[in-house]
Predict the 3D structure of the following.
Amino acid sequence: MEYRALALDVTSHAVDCLVAVVPSGPMPAPLAALDRATEGLVEAARAAGELARFLGWSHNLRPPGIAAKRLFLVSTGDKEALTRDQWRKLAAAIAERVTGRGIESAAVILEGVAVEDSDRTDCAARLAEAVVTGSYRFAECKSKASEDEDNRPSLARLDLVCAPEEVASLQAALDRGQAIGEGINFTRRLGDLPPNICTPAYLAGAAQSLAESSPRLTARVLEEPEMRELGMGALLAVTAGTATPPRLIVLEYRGAAESDPPIALVGKGVTFDSGGICLKPSANLDEMKYDMCGAAGVLGTLLAADRLRLPLNLVGIVPAVENMPSGNATRPGDIVTAMDGTTIEILNTDAEGRLILCDALTYAGRYRPSAVIDVATLTGACVVALGHHRSGLFSNDEALAVELFEAGERSGDKVWRLPLGEEYDEQLKSPFADLANVGGKGAGSVTAACFLGRFAKDYRWAHLDIAGTAWKSGEKKGATGRPVGLLAEFLLNRSR
């Protein structure tokens, strides 16, 4: 897929589809030229009032007078200036018009569109990201294409019409959006793969393939004997009941001086979560293949960082396991010892994510990181608290929390901060071990974060609970790729 910023005559540009965003205010020069060439078609559509009805309303036309085979007029509604959220919705509407419809080439006119707190480069980046993610289809496990996923051509080129002085800046923005979109799609694909394919070993192979594709990435994979030697008793307690061996994946990105401390990203990689001995109900149990979306998000973010060539050092740490019941499985009441020596009474084997993450967080400390962010589909309690719109954010550092919150607002991959505190730590007390792995019914997402915080005291740390945002259920079931957009925006801000 090729994205190009071009200064061109919109009337003579030969593409399958020309998309013109029609603002409510004065008509900009490219639209005026289009209107003249089509004998007043654009102004007639505006005068009819239909384009002002609501955001994203469009006309599909085949007008004479221009070289494009098809013309879409897309409305900004009656808004003089769009919010960032409205622009993202409009970009998604444009993406829907040009992807999956047999269109191979398209051009977009954005001039005259105003977006609050955003410039044209930001708008261009969001457009490219929307088109990349809008092009995503998961059909590799189907034996043949369905009727609506036939062999029609896919979009191969998108041109953004701009002034000559904007070409360089908007091309860089398109490249940025494309890189982030590709990271999101990489994450979505891993999440959508079935658990008999996407095993811990498969995730490790995906990380190694990324490393082989770039001189800036290196991968190392630790297997069970090495984890046992490191004392990762909490992680290995989760994988005790499965025949599928675990992996600890370490993917490093070097974009700065070797002496610069890295930012560590830790992703929960439970490739299937049955609940273990505390077996989950059967309803929607297939969706527990998505319990590795934190891991997929970390790998997707490293891919995006590499494509963006960010001047930062990063390390992605992915504990990858399968949580299954068997005669060898960890039982409720068992006590295990984590890598840092903490003893943990396991009261619920379905609270397994925090057990693999706590050892990974201890391992992350070896890198003396400037900050650590863990990403996990951790608790159903977070879904109850925040629904499916915002991920939960917890942090032991105010500045880091603010950075992540603002990155979420800019990217549209939003978070909401939830509390930590000693009063919640009380719920994790155990009469038999240093702490329990669950804290009772109340504030489940908070006590889970407090559990992780016990292992992140030596550095600046944030936890993202993506249980409500990592995938969608129902008719549009599938991985969302979150929080790659948030993390990419955070890293871009750090690199400026």
In short: The mean pLDDT is 94.
